[in-house]
Amino acid sequence: MLERLTAFFGNPAGYHTPLPEADASHAMGALLVRAAKADDAYLFEEIALIDRILAQRHALNPIEAAKMRAECELLEREMPRTSEIATILKEAISTSEKEATLVALWRVVFADGVKRVEEDRLLHRIEEVLGVAPARAKELQAQAEG
Hints:
The chain has 8 helices and no strands.
């Protein structure tokens, strides 16, 4: 009996949310989510900032941005390697878009007011995959902090 109740409430009617397309827009959102979760805390401030970034970058209203973030969260969970997500961006966006994405990523990392080593390592890995030179990456990080 308990198993049937758990099965029913755990996944009513076998519902499965389809994985969104792994395009550049969703890859960027997935990286924003991954950056927010890098310190093992996914806080309201980070979620709200991700929604604002997605709304601004893709001309979405708040509801559409929240829906897109939910799709990006699913993509982030299903793609275990950060380098795979970042490679989608590397091949699809311009240098200026890569730099804007890095600024957005750093802003999400700084949203909770605490700098952590895990977040720093993650962002430096993403910078490397995107092909942003270390000196330029430092400038972008400072821009996001300022």
